[in-house]
Amino acid sequence: MTDAEDVRRIALSLPEVTEKTAWSMPTFRVAGKMFATLPEEETSLAVRCPKEERDELVLAEPEKFWIAGHEAQFAWVRARIAALDDEAELRAILTDSWRQAAPPRLLEAHPELGTPDAG
């Protein structure tokens, strides 16, 4: 089962990621742009997700994903860390969010991490 330490380890393994406390919680940033947070006593994960995909995720897997009320207007989704299938799913979620926040120079430098449009 994955936990907050797995989130931290995977997030910090991505290129140019830093951890910073904001709003009394850990946040992870690439080139200064936030792409993940650990709210709810670090039992959930908030990541960037296009609104269309976010809505589909929540409908398809409500036991894993939900939209926090104060984030509804933004392209973010929450995931229950313990409900994720495995570390591979967690890595895919974090990498996808990283791609959405990373500047073009990092995407070009790390083609193995895909592009923001890669499914």
Write the layout of secondary structure elements.
Elements: H1 4-13, E1 17-22, E2 25-30, E3 33-37, E4 44-48, H2 51-60, E5 65-66, E6 76-80, H3 87-101, H4 104-109
- Classify the secondary structure makeup into a structural class: alpha+beta
Strand content: 15-25%
Low-confidence stretches: none
Mean pLDDT: 94
Order of helices and strands: HEEEEHEEHH
Which properties best describe this structure?
119 residues; alpha+beta; six-stranded antiparallel sheet; 4 helices; 6 strands; 34% helix
Question: How is this structure best described in words?
Answer:
There is one protein chain. The protein has 119 residues and is an alpha+beta fold. It contains four helices and six strands; from the N terminus they run αββββαββαα. Strands 1-2-3-4-6-5 form a six-stranded antiparallel β-sheet. The longest helix is centred in the last third of the chain and has 15 residues, at 87-101. The mean pLDDT is 94.
Task: Briefly summarize what is shown.
The protein has 119 residues and is of the alpha+beta class. It has helices at residues 4-13, 51-60, 87-101, 104-109, and strands at residues 17-22, 25-30, 33-37, 44-48, 65-66, 76-80. The chain is globular and about 35 Å long.
